[in-house]
Amino acid sequence: MEVLERPLIDLQSSVDLIKAVRDLATGPLAELADDIDRRGIYPKSILHRLGELGALKAHMAGHGKPADYGLAISAMTEVSRVCGATGFMVWCHDVCGLYMEQSGNPALGGELLARHADGQTLGATGMSNPMKTFAGIETFLLHAQKVDGGYLVNGTLPWVSNLGPDHYFGAVADVVVDGANGPIKVAEMGANAIVGEIAILCDIARTATVIARTEIEALRISKENFLKLLSDFPEMTIEVMRVLAQRLSHTTIELTEARSLAAQGGR
Question: Is the CATH number of domain 11-121 2.40.30.170?
Answer without folding.
Answer: no
